[in-house]
Amino acid sequence: MDDTPLSVLFAALFFLILLSAFFSGSETGLMTLNRYRLRHLADKQHPGAMRAQKLLQRQDRLIGLILLGNNFVNVLASILMTLITLRIYNDTGLLFAAGLVLTIV
């Protein structure tokens, strides 16, 4: 990891933060859907509504998968931020990295 350019590490960190936002948004969006409107749109053969209704048939699996993905991405972001901070500030930036990642994620 020492020979990986910082720009690549920052790009990967940015991508992981976007993935975390995607998982969080998916959780919020799918769990707060209006079920009556969803059923109405699915009855009209709306493709997105039919897909969402199929996903929501097993809510326990859906929420488990979303939370698992979000936790996995957040842990990877923490690891990557720690590597970046260690590379820039050596050992003195470790607390800074932990605080920054916990604030962002």
Offer a concise description of the structure.
The chain is mainly α. It has helices at 6-31, 35-43, 47-55, 59-89, 94-104.
SSE blueprint:
Blueprint: H1 6-31, H2 35-43, H3 47-55, H4 59-89, H5 94-104
Helix pairs in contact: 1-4, 2-3, 4-5
Can you give a write-up of this model?
- There is one protein chain.
- With 105 residues, this protein is an all-alpha fold.
- 82% of the residues lie in helices and 0% in strands.
- The protein has a domain at 6-74.
- The chain contains 5 helices and no strands.
- Helix 1 packs antiparallel against helix 4.
- The relative contact order is 0.14.
- The mean pLDDT is 86.
Q: Mind summarizing the main beta sheet?
A: none
Topology, number of strands: 0
Gap from first CA to last CA: 23 Å
Determine the structural class based on helices, strands and strand pairing: mainly alpha
Rg over CA atoms: 19 Å
How do the SSEs run, as a string of H and E?
HHHHH
What is the strand content? Answer: under 5%
Shape designation: elongated
Mean pLDDT: 86
